[in-house]
């Protein structure tokens, strides 16, 4: 019996069914498959290329795409969703004193240049501190100061406001209010543990 | 043959053989009873427990005669069934405490029905489509890449306290002469010389104060004076022009160009 | 800032996009994922259950289905295509009759103690049987029974449901019939105290 006879003897499944079959095989297989390998696993008479093409179309715009590389086929995450394939482990760290002070100065004096920050802090500001605050997206570059040297200025961002629960940077309490809140007096000496912890908790409530 | 009376027909013989196997396979007396009950060919709910008890006792007898070692629980069941049989046959003694023979028989029937029910359910469960047999998971899972993210934690209070700390720092500093608060004319001249090339338009002298000398009023005053003195010096050299619109007005500077006649 | 404010501040992606994201994540894994785990990987404000439901509908009749077992979700190939999957079939050790029966008893009577399993089977349960079922992760320890001796109980797992393609333990075959026939009742031997009485409510935990 010739091949043609066989073809008419065993009718191939309808194309929709072939597509389901290709879908299931490609889903379950542990490696990309050649069309010929697929064909070998399908019932006699199936049109693999046709099934692949229509399956590929079906997955267009979906979260998963049917990709061809060379003559091999495989399901792959849509490139624009690859960020979902990352699992983040989160580690919480306290900001360094230099960073929080720099951030505070920027918040209160924005727009402010690096030299001005250094002047207020009385120590130089390291590149890393600025970089970290930029990375956190709590500060960004403002307009250049229209003075000789046109130094860059720093301002705080929307993300900064969101993180600290502020509507605007103007809502930051001024020195007088800080003093009233007890934050200006009894400043602990550097390097000694802060004994005013309970006060901090009290204050926290006001801002949450 | 002494055992002939046990094996009444072929089906029963097969059942008996199964029993022997099951004893070896250690499926327990309840299993034996369930197998025996099938020979009654009735619904388990209408089974004759008395007949079943007799069948079981015969089975144990036969096993003994065949020198098949029976585990203790088979013999315990045999003793219990013998007791049950006597309860079922004798009229109930009103003096006696405890459940009646009928109650015990009903419970045994329940146990058999329950075991059979579990066996059928187990068979149906195993006949279900199973993962890795009829249906399959993703064969080539894509790796989820692990990314470590550091979250910096700072509260508004931290922020304000840091600012308060910075602003009150001076109060806590030990007393020392702050020589750094004086900006010399030499420094100013150096700086102005470097900058005048860019000053093509009139612009405020104050814009030329060094960055770090603008905020502190003392430092600002020193820097302003030095920068003004340096500007005068540069005017004298013919490099700079200087003007003030009115008294205490802004002092403005501009680079002097050759096309610009001296005013 | 309140949760509601945040919700309006960061708008969730459109539902079609949420569906794509869930599709991508579930496609990329071979293990079932809890809806909560999915939610944790999606942008803020996504309605995971909605996305799952519409995704499940989308894959109806396809070569791959979205199956739920307990509160976990996974894509699985359609069972009617198993004939194409010989290559994927993993040769599993055939379970003994004792193991199968023990599994069924635990599934239908959970949470159930070892003594209760033994009473139902009329034979002692070997350590190895329980160990094997634990190893397969089809059963696990449940709460201790609040009766003298505080015996441990066994229940089935999500992996059990996933393996047998069950959405919940309620979907066990013939569960209703067995219950209607009173075969899942705890009926002690007449004349013996029922030690389970105080915690009868426990029994139905898995099914309600």
From TrEMBL, chains A, C:
InterPro entries: ScpB_csome_segregation, WH-like_DNA-bd_sf, WH_DNA-bd_sf. Pfam families: SMC_ScpB (PF04079). Keywords: Cell cycle, Cell division, Chromosome partition, Cytoplasm. The keyword Ribosomal protein does not apply. The keyword Cytoplasm applies. Gene3D superfamilies: Winged helix-like DNA-binding domain superfamily/Winged helix DNA-binding domain (1.10.10.10). GO terms for biological process: cell division; chromosome separation. This is Segregation and condensation protein B.
TrEMBL record, chain B:
Gene3D superfamilies: 6.10.250.2410. InterPro entries: ScpA. PANTHER family: SEGREGATION AND CONDENSATION PROTEIN A. This is Segregation and condensation protein A. It comes from Pontivivens insulae. The lineage of its organism: Bacteria, Pseudomonadati, Pseudomonadota, Alphaproteobacteria, Rhodobacterales. The gene is scpA_2.
